[in-house]
Amino acid sequence: MAVSWSSAFRIALFVLLVATAVAAFFVLPVEKILKDFLVWTNENLGLWGPVVLALAYIPLTILAVPAAILSLGGGYLFGLPIGFLADSVGATLGSVAAFLLGRTLGRSYVISKMNDYQEFQAVATAIQRSGFKIVLLLRLAPLLPFCLLNYLLSVTPIGIWEYTFASWLGIQSL
């Protein structure tokens, strides 16, 4: 099997990204950093705090950092309606960013590896038939971690808008 330079570069970049995230998770005090970030946004950014909170979800979701602290802290610091809105928009933006990253960086490699697994083929076929419903059900069932699911779904035939709406709806129930 011949691998082009472009594919090799994308695979290497993806592996580097994952390795960096894993190393940072074990080396850095992630929980303390997120708590300090929440306090800083609340004390220093005023009305922009919820916007910055929502945008913070994007890199956290791409790097598969659990953002439960942000979800709980956003509601506590900014009040339930504004905190909920910031968390909802942020988690959806983060999941779409990870989905698009998975679609562009390692798609061909992952698909070539997943073709050997009949379970994945069954899920891909089900998503092709009724993608919205399958993505929503996968979001509701705690079978796979939220961040991992973004990347796995990125190699299925679901469209971006269908994925986004089903993910957003599923995120609301979490």
UniProtKB/TrEMBL annotation:
Keywords: Cell membrane, Membrane, Transmembrane, Transmembrane helix
Sequence ranges assigned to domain VTT in this UniProt record: 65-171
Places the protein is found: Cell membrane
Membrane topology term: Multi-pass membrane protein
Pfam families cross-referenced by the UniProt entry: VTT_dom
InterPro entries, per the entry: TMEM64 (IPR015414), VTT_dom (IPR032816)
Any single GO CC term annotated in Swiss-Prot or TrEMBL for this entry: plasma membrane
Top-level taxon: Eukaryota
Main location: membrane
Spans traversing the lipid bilayer: 12-30, 51-72, 78-101, 136-160
Name the record gives this protein: VTT domain-containing protein
Species name: Canna indica
UniProt lineage: Eukaryota, Viridiplantae, Streptophyta, Embryophyta, Tracheophyta
